[in-house]
Automatic annotation (TrEMBL):
Record key words, sorted: Antibiotic resistance, Cell membrane, Cell shape, Cell wall biogenesis/degradation, Hydrolase, Membrane, Peptidoglycan synthesis, Transmembrane, Transmembrane helix
Gene source species: Candidatus Woesebacteria bacterium RBG_16_34_12
N-terminal signal peptide: none
Predominant subcellular localization, coarse grouping: membrane
Entry-linked InterPro entries: UppP
Function: Catalyzes the dephosphorylation of undecaprenyl diphosphate (UPP). Confers resistance to bacitracin.
Top-level EC class: hydrolase
Name of the protein described by the UniProt record: Undecaprenyl-diphosphatase
Amino acid sequence: MTLLIAIFLGILQGLTEFLPISSSGHLVLVQQIIPGFYQQGVLFDVILHIGTLAAVLYFFRKKIFSLTPKYLSLLLVGTVPAVIMIFFFRQQLEGLYSNDRFLGIEFVITGLMNLAVDLPQANKELLKIKSSFLIGIAQALAIFPAISRSGATIFTGVRMGIDKKEVVEYSFILSIPVIFGAGLIEILTFRSSISSASTLSYLVGFLTSFIVGFFAIAVVVKFLQKRWFKYFGYYCIGLGVLTFFFN
């Protein structure tokens, strides 16, 4: 793997992991569009995810260091649906990654959720056990390849009337246990495949996904405050239509 490919994949991961446009869906499309492109292995994919995980930890470091037991319990409740979904249904859903029509439909669904984020909130609610669990279900549904995790969780929280600042913090902090757990398992499984020849590419991919991911989180926060999520919506709907009809 060349350093240019490592940088490209780091940028792709950093942008699409946090922007509400689906990282897995874009990776599938890139594999189809670019001749000769292929995934660089499970371990490299995990390295990129760890880079974006580090971006979350650094961006929300003040919030994370001040977490209360109550907030930790809300994170636990929100994590349960994703654990169940991954454990029981991941293999059954893998076939959807090769179905362009399903991919197109899922991009459109993500786009519609992004459009709905900008709609006025009818009422204001606090983040509680019930809302945490529902946001967790939204995160679990992002196992579908073109359903954005950040888009689905932010949409769910905002439409329930939770303060947007609180929603975006909870959405990204909620991703930490899932990304960390998946990354740890893959690293333990594939640690023997790391060679000195690939270490530099891993490092470059990690740093790129971390830096780009950090700025992508800042973009999401700003777009949410300015009610600019509709632009993510237009993009995903347009991409979904193209994917569906021109597969």
